[in-house]
Structure formats: C-alpha cells, structure tokens
Design a protein that fits this description.
Number of domains: 1
Order of helices and strands: EHEHEEHEHHEEEHEHEHEH
Number of strands: 11
Distance between the termini: 7 Å
Structural class: alpha/beta
Strand order of the largest sheet: 3-2-1-11-10-9-8-5-4
Helix content: 40-55%
CATH superfamily: Luciferase-like domain
CATH topology: TIM Barrel
Radius of gyration: 19 Å
Number of helices: 9
CATH architecture: Alpha-Beta Barrel
Shape: globular
CATH class: Alpha Beta
Length: about 290
C-alpha cells in the first residue's frame, strides 16, 4: 500500500507570511520520506470540519505548481477539482502544465462539486446536481480527447470546443491519471467504472460501507466490460499522531485493514496540520511497514 498526504489547511502559526515556507517544508519533507502523493483541496473558502470559512485557503493549482517545484517524486493532485470552477479546456491545460512542469507527476482529481456558498460568493454559476454530473462527464470526455492529441471539435450538451488542441501533451502516459472523488452509487461510481484510473472514498464511512462501495464499483465495471483491477482504489482519512493520540502502529493496522478491502493508497490528513513531527512519524514508521 502507498501513503499520500493531503494538506487541507494553511492556518499556521506565524500567519499568512509563513504559508509559503511552511508549505514548501511540508512538501519537501513528505517527498523525501517517500509519500506517494501530495494533495490539496480545490476550494476557495475553508470548509466546515476543517476550519472557519474565513481561514486562509490557497487556489489549488497555484499551490500544486509551487509544491511541484519543491518535490521530485510524489504525484500531485487536487482532492478533488470542482467541475464548475473552471472551463474544461482551461482545466485540462492547467493539469497538463502541472504534469509537464513536474516531470509527469500530475493527477486529475475531479468531482461534481458541492460548495454552493463559495460558488455564489465568487460569482461562479452553480447548476443543479443533475447538470453538474452531466458537466463532469463531458469534462472527462474533453480531457481524454485533448490528451489523445486529437485537435478536433467537441460538441456536448453543455460544452462546445472548436479545436481541442493541447500542446505540449502530458508527460504521464497515456495521460495524467483521472481520479474521480465520491461514493454515489448510481452516478459517481458508474463514471469511475467508465472513465477513471482511480477512485477516492472517505475512510470515516467505515469498513462495511467501504466494502459495499467497492462491490458497487465492481458491478459497474462488470456491466461495462471494464477491468475492476485496473482502477486504483484510494481512501481519504484523518489521523492524529500527536502525543497521546493514535500511534503509528495503529495507523499501520488501519492500512492493513484497508488493504484487505482492496485499497492501494491511503491518503491522510494530519489532525492539527502537517507538522514535521507527524510527517516524520508517518514517513519513518508507517510507509516502510505498509509498502509490502
């Protein structure tokens, strides 16, 4: 099993002036310790459960590009890009640029978006859930067409591109892995089965629910004639490795349980932020133990 790190908060001691240095240090440290991937959320306002709405929040692809310059090995992605925030053609160019400049290390993490408050706050249209799913599917189709090297028109219900020219092409082959986040059984997991290279489920749902969601995904794969095994199964969870909380050994056991369910990558938020001590514990005591 691989271990990834998500950084969902930039509220660090020292205020806004230290965000760049702290983010660079966390990314460099995690990269050197063997984390397989580094992630930020794609939000413009902080979300409930992580912090207050007016806490610092970086634009995701600016942050990922900054992190790319401070790392050499870890893959980089947004967990997950809200489909309504950027026009599909511009999003694909953005992810392609990240992939090229990072040496082929980008994910396209994407989902239907849910945060209506930040969309309204910044003047971004927020259509119905049905339309957001339609836009999600078309966006993935556009990405695949642009990354195929085919510069041709795309005519969808919501998007119309006269020329899907994408130069340079990504360094990742055949393209940056497409990760779809979410656990909706009728639409999201069907889109995973049809298009995605990876899925992401939320660990706090518990093992029974996670097992059920993977079973649903497998049924969609069977119905579409897609190999279930070729989809990377990832899970997002939070751990607290500060003194007196969960131990590194307990995290290893958690990972073993997830591996038994069929997950290949556990992506962790660190309670209280990605401090150097917690990153070091994960890197030195968890990653080597779960690598096999």
């Amino acid at each position: 099993m691989k271990i990834g790190l998500q950084i969902p908060s930039f509220s660090w001691p020292g205020g806004d002036a230290v965000i760049g240095a702290r983010l660079a240090d966390a990314a460099e440290r995690a990269d050197e310790l063997g984390f397989a991937s580094l992630w930020v959320m794609d939000h413009f306002f902080q979300i409930g459960g992580v912090g207050e709405v007016d806490e610092p929040m970086l634009e995701s692809y600016s942050a990922l590009s900054f992190m790319a310059a401070h790392t050499r090995r870890a893959r980089l992605g947004a967990m997950v890009t809200g489909v309504v925030y950027r026009h599909p053609g511009i999003l694909v160019k953005t992810v392609t640029s990240l992939d090229v400049l990072s040496g082929g290390r980008a994910y396209l993490g994407i989902g239907a978006a849910w945060n209506e408050r930040e969309s309204n706050g910044l003047g971004v249209p927020f259509p119905s859930l049905k339309e957001r799913y339609e836009r999600l599917e078309e966006t993935i189709e556009i990405a695949l067409q642009m990354w195929s090297g085919k510069a041709a028109p795309f005519e969808g219900r919501h998007f119309h591109l006269a020329e899907t020219l994408c130069r340079p092409l990504p360094l990742s082959k055949p393209h940056p892995p497409i990760l779809i986040g979410g656990s909706g059984e009728r639409k999201t997991l069907r889109l995973v089965a049809q298009y995605a290279d990876a899925c992401n489920l939320v660990g706090r749902a518990g093992e029974d629910t996670l097992r059920h969601k993977l079973d649903v995904l497998k049924r969609h794969c069977d119905a579409l004639g897609r190999s279930y095994e070729e989809i990377e199964k990832t899970v997002l969870d939070t751990v607290d490795l500060s003194e007196g909380s969960i131990s590194a050994r307990q995290v290893v056991e958690k990972c073993r349980g997830l591996a038994r369910l069929g997950f290949q990558q556990a992506i962790f938020n660190l309670h209280g932020g990605p401090g150097p001590d917690q990153i070091e514990l994960l890197g030195r005591e968890v990653i080597p133990e779960v690598a096999g």
